[in-house]
From TrEMBL:
Residue stretches in coiled coil: none
Protein's name in the database: Small multi-drug export protein
InterPro entries: Sm_multidrug_ex
Organism of provenance: Vanilla planifolia (Vanilla)
A Pfam family the protein falls into: Sm_multidrug_ex
Membrane-spanning residues: 6-27, 64-88, 94-115, 122-141
GO cellular component, as recorded: chloroplast
Keyword terms, alphabetized: Membrane, Transmembrane, Transmembrane helix
Length: 150
């Protein structure tokens, strides 16, 4: 089954982005509505929000760039939906949240596409390198931000 990687990437990016505007716009309203109707739903929503807050460190620190890079990392628990939840919880502006999610999804799609086409051995090596690069990048961004604020 030979599928066109470009078409697959475009479809996956668009499919991933479909719920993002709705999450950013309506998540808090939906959570408030559910919380008023059902105590169990309130506990579930609070759990969901708490998990998102735990992951929101880079986004709180770097806003748009932090959200875009958070979504761009193709690891479990990151991605557009979690990024949209974090943006909604942090009250980011709609266009800022959607654009950061979009560019993050595009980068993640390109990375996954690259890794799939490299093969398992090279994909594992690239994954390790990406993890190390992202760790160094966050440290450098934090130092840069500290230097700007001092």
């Amino acid at each position: 089954m030979r599928l066109d990687p470009l078409k697959l990437t475009i479809v996956s990016v668009l499919g991933n982005m479909v719920p993002v505007p709705f999450i950013v716009l309506y998540l808090k309203k939906f959570a408030d509505y559910l919380s008023k109707k059902n105590a169990s739903a309130a506990k579930i929503m609070e759990f969901l929000f708490e998990r998102a807050r735990e992951k929101a460190g880079p986004v709180v620190e770097f806003q748009w760039l932090g959200l875009m890079l958070f979504v761009a990392v193709p690891f479990p628990g990151t991605g557009a939906w979690t990024g949209a939840i974090i943006a909604a919880i942090l009250n980011m502006s709609f266009w800022s949240a959607v654009s950061a999610n979009f560019f993050g999804v595009v980068l993640a799609g390109l990375l996954v596409n690259l890794l799939v086409n490299l093969g398992l051995k090279y994909a594992i090596m690239v994954g390790i390198v990406l993890f190390l690069v992202s760790t160094v990048m966050w440290s450098a961004l934090r130092r840069f931000k500290a230097n700007l604020s001092s």
